[in-house]
Amino acid sequence: MIFSIDLCQLISFPKISDPRGNLTFIEGGNHIPFDIKRVYYLYDVPGGSERGGHAHRMLHQVIIAMSGSFDVVLDDGKGKKRIHLNRSYCGLYVCPMMWRELDNFSSGSVCMVLASERYDETDYFRDYQQFLTAVNEQ
Ligand code: TYD
Fold first, then answer.
1. pLDDT of 110 higher than 90
2. Which of 6, 26, 55, 125 has the highest count of CB atoms within 10 angstroms of its CB?
3. pLDDT digits over 48-94, tens only?
4. Do residues 115 and 36 lie in contact, with contact meaning Cβ atoms separated by under 8 Å?
5. Would residue 54 show up in a list of annotated catalytic residues for this protein?
6. pLDDT tens for residues 30-52?
7. Quick one: which of 47, 100, 48, 92 has its CA closest to 66?
8. Is 43 in the pocket of ligand 1 (CB under 6 A)?
């Protein structure tokens, strides 16, 4: 399968609006296209910081701005797209073979990531040239 940037779309999750505070829920395999094996989150991100800077061979992810805002720059080796995330009921699906960078974090922002697999360093491309070579071999 060729993983194109067009597969990486925003997903709106159910939102139960309530004067006591809104509620959103996410069910693996239902609201997102995989079962969730891992959740991790970035927080206490200093201003001007950049995260990401890698791609994954197999991993599917959904990135959510749980609080505050930040940008995700996606790159499939052929084109790039910058997406601003600032809604806790909205997630960005990121398919495998997608170089991603996160920047423009607002102060106090929290970035939560739902992932299809447990942490596996061998699934990472951390070198952009190696990523491009692999994309061109697809
Ligand atoms: P990394 O994925 O490079 O972070 P980011 O994409 O947010 O910049 O991970 C940073 C470090 O944390 C790296 O040493 C691996 C470790 N880590 C885990 O041990 N488990 C995890 O689930 C994740 C995401 C990272």
1. yes
2. 55
3. 899 999 999 999 999 999 999 999 999 999 999 999 999 999 999 99
4. yes
5. yes
6. 999 999 999 999 999 998 899 99
7. 92
8. no
CA distance 102 to 107: 14
DSSP 97: S
Q: Residues in the chain, how many? A: 138
Which bin fits 51, alpha (ψ -120 to 50), beta or left (φ > 0)? beta
Residue with CA closest to ligand 1 atom 20: 119
pLDDT for 47 equals: 86
| Predicted confidence (pLDDT) at residue 138 exceeds the cutoff of 90 | no
Q: What integer pLDDT is reported at residue 5 of this predicted model?
A: 97
Report the nearest atom of ligand 1 relative to the CA of 100: 6
Specify the ligand 1 atom closest to the Cα of 111.
7
Please indicate whether residue 52, judged by its CB atom, sits closer than 6 Å to ligand 1: yes
Compute the 3-state secondary structure of the chain and give helix, strand, coil in percent, each to the nearest 5: 10, 40, 45
The whole-number pLDDT of residue 66 equals 98
Please choose, from the candidates 44, 52, 50, 54, the residue with its C-alpha nearest in 3D space to the C-alpha of residue 104. Answer: 50
DSSP state letter for 131: H
